[in-house]
Amino acid sequence: MFFRHHSDKVILPIILVIALFGSSYRGKYHLKAQMPAAFLDEDLPSNKASFEEKIAEAYWKSAQMDIQWRYPYSSPLPPDPPPIFQINAPDLGPAASNPATRLLYWQHLQRVWYSPEIWEKHYGWDFSWISDPLASGGTWLKNATDKLFGAH
């Protein structure tokens, strides 16, 4: 049986606020600022290496600025590069942004995407779960059971 006390009007809101803030402070994964060596093509002649490295860094920046927000940590990347994965670097020339080069670096991104070494976890406030609490709760429950039972 539940007995009502005068202190319930104070304690229950405090518990709710603590639960709200406790569930809103969470870790999020972000791509590391430094481009991984595996993202760059290893079979480059030394005279083209610095130019290709600049192109690779530009595509890595595109992945950091646009791709990681649309396809977060552990979510699959589509087979074809989305329109937002592109560079606009006139100093690199038209070869840097042609479709073949774009596809090549998209494949490089797919190759390293699931590697834990390219990700870092940052903790902060995230109230995005409030917009769809059922979906967020389901995602949380799935992640919790995956951690508990070791599913990857």
Q: What would you note in describing this structure?
A:
- This protein has 152 residues and is mainly α.
- It has one domain.
- 48% of the residues lie in helices and 9% in strands.
- The chain has 4 helices and 2 strands, in the order αβααβα.
- A two-stranded antiparallel sheet has the order 1-2.
- Helix 2 packs across helix 3.
- The mean pLDDT is 83.
As laid out across the biggest beta sheet, the strand order is: 1-2
End-to-end separation: 43 Å
Number of domains: 1
What is the tally of helical segments? Answer: 4
The largest β sheet comes out as:
2 strands, antiparallel
Helix-strand sequence: HEHHEH
- Average pLDDT works out at 83
Structural class: mainly alpha
Strand content: 5-15%
Radius of gyration: 22 Å
Unreliable sequence segments: none
Q: How many β-strand stretches?
A: 2
Query: What share of the residues lie within helices?
Result: 40-55%
The shape, in one word, is: elongated
